[in-house]
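#lab-general

N.A. 3:47 PM
ok so I finally got the sequence cleaned up, no stray characters, all 512 residues accounted for. can someone with queue access submit it? mine expired

B.Y. 3:52 PM
send it over

N.A. 3:53 PM
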Amino acid sequence: MMLSTNAPGRFPLRLLMAAACSAGLLGLMTPDADAQRRNQNDAQSEEEAAADRTFSAEIGEIVLRAQELQSNDQWGESITQLDRALGRSGINNYERAIALQLRGRAYYETERLDSAIRDWRDAIATGILNTDETVGLRINIGQLLIANERYNEGIDEIQAAARAGGEINERLAMMLAQAYAQADRFPEGLRYAEQAYNGANPKERRHFNLVLYYYQSLDRTADQMRIIGEMAARWPTEKNIWTSYASLLAQNDREEDAFEVNKIMYINGMLTEGREIERLAQYYSFYDLPYRGASILEREMNAGRVERTQSNVELLANMWRQAREWDRAIPVLRTLAEMTNAGENYLKLGEALYQQGELQAATSAIESALNRGGLRQTGNAWVLLGNIRYELGERQSAIEAFDRGAQFGESRRTAEGWARFVREEIRFEQERPRILEQLRRDSCRFSVEDQRETSVLLGNVDPETGRLILDLPEECSPYYNRFGDPLGDQAEQDPAAASAAAAEEDRENQEG
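B.Y. 4:20 PM
back already:
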């Protein structure tokens, strides 16, 4: 029989009841001091009843023959003899009690447990047995009942033996604790589990397992921690103990401590199964240590201890992305994209390529993602594609991508902003020559006006015309002559200068 639980971290407890019962026939319980005093007080009455504790010649001969047969393991023949004795009409209570005990033993040896229990109970019922004899039989009955999965009846018999003066020792406490556990009576059985544990010297694994099982069943977390800690100290290389410890920590919201235990197990070579290493890698990712987790997972995948499944490749890729190790993420993401043919994974590949500065490759990957579809945020993918195209100098195709992104709610505002920015940039570049031309014209006009105001007294005068000669920059020659008269279409932008030039020309004509 086995007590077990499917909950992580719990230990299976084997209850080898049949073996325990066999040992129990040699006696598991001893009378305590009070019982011994009661036996002494009963001595006088027992002596008075000595006449009732004798055998007749006929019954004695049958019983002796039965004992001889039992000593030779002839249990069936022994039962036949004892049946003869018990069938005699003149048999007294003492003879009946002894014959019943012997026949019960024979039934036990031939695995007829119900018959053995019945005979021993009948022996007690004769009332002729003393306290020690009654206690011993009740213990044997209790053990057989427990071995026969009649746990509550077995418990009652052993408790009755204790009330009669028997002392529950470590071995019997162990059996009681197991029986209470099988009967799902953990609060009552805890005292016996603790007695067996505390009384064991040396403590064996079964003592640890039993008391731990009780603490688990009663949700006594602190006691579980204590026992598992003692077990880990005693058996430091046993993986299942550390696994149970980590599981217990995780169940009690101590995930970070569970992570530390898993790290210790990995360092000491205890994590050998793929799922265990995967769990450790996930811990590293959860606690924002993705580089270490990815390094472990990649090494174990290369060594063949972790399968290169889709989920594991995805975990590895995500951790390299989390660590921003783009050069190491890219080959894993490319493998994942080819394995799944999923748009989302091509998008992740494109993002990594973009971060690594491989813009053309990133464009191809993101276009593949959009063509395959199934993206969680299609609009953002279009925006990213637009950004990459813009960085490549492909502004018109970037605008097309931004316009597509503006069709999705999650990216509309960003996409419209980018599209507007690029359009304005293009417009500005188209207007730039004109603006620069206008700036040059305005600068020259300001220079003409300034020099006319400041050079009247000190400026150079043309000896032929008597007009002021201006010192204009070379870049103004397309717009003004040396007198500051506007040339060509500059007259339209500088009407004052054009008017002054016309007036000067009229004056010269009149003088001529």
